[in-house]
Amino acid sequence: MARKQTVKQKPATRNKSVKRPVKRPVKRPVKKAVKKASLGRPRIAGTAELDMEFRGDFGARQIFQFLDVQTFKELEAFSSQEITDRVITPLVQAVERIRKQLAMANRHLAGDQKFAQRFQSELARVTQASKR
């Protein structure tokens, strides 16, 4: 039997006169690595005493004494808001006690008359309820 001869087809030639749009690669957003901001190498050791660095700042030294911290490492455990809250809270409580004591003596701080009147009325209500 005779073999069938295959006819090779010529590759299709492109019409050079027709311009095809150039496919450009899709630009995907590049994820940038988030670097944690660094302050660099500490200039003072964590075990260094706060009193030596803040020897001229009496207010700061009082705060260190109030917080009962001696080293930088111990101080770094607190946030600024936490330090502020711990220092201010006893003062606020003391002022409230002063306001109440003055109201009981029919006195008040400047611009604090409404508080004194309200406190006196509450105190009278409580004392009357306890007598019954």
Return the string of H and E elements. Answer: HHHHH
**Structure annotation, total helices:** 5
- Overall helicity: 40-55%
Distance between the first and last residues' Cα: 129 Å
| Low-pLDDT segments | none
Give the DSSP E fraction (strand runs of 2 or more residues): under 5%
Using the CA coordinates, give the radius of gyration: 40 Å
Q: Average pLDDT value?
A: 85
Net shape: elongated
Number of strands: 0
Largest sheet, if any? Answer: none
User: What structural category arises from helix and sheet content?
Assistant: mainly alpha
Please provide a written account of the structure.
The protein has 132 residues and is mainly alpha-helical. Among the domains are: 36 residues, no CATH class; 43 residues, no CATH class. The protein contains 5 helices and no strands. α4 packs across α5. The model has no long low-confidence stretch (mean pLDDT 85).
Structure at a glance:
This protein has 132 residues and is mainly α. 47% of the residues lie in helices and 0% in strands.
Attribute tags:
single chain, 132 residues, mainly alpha, 5 helices
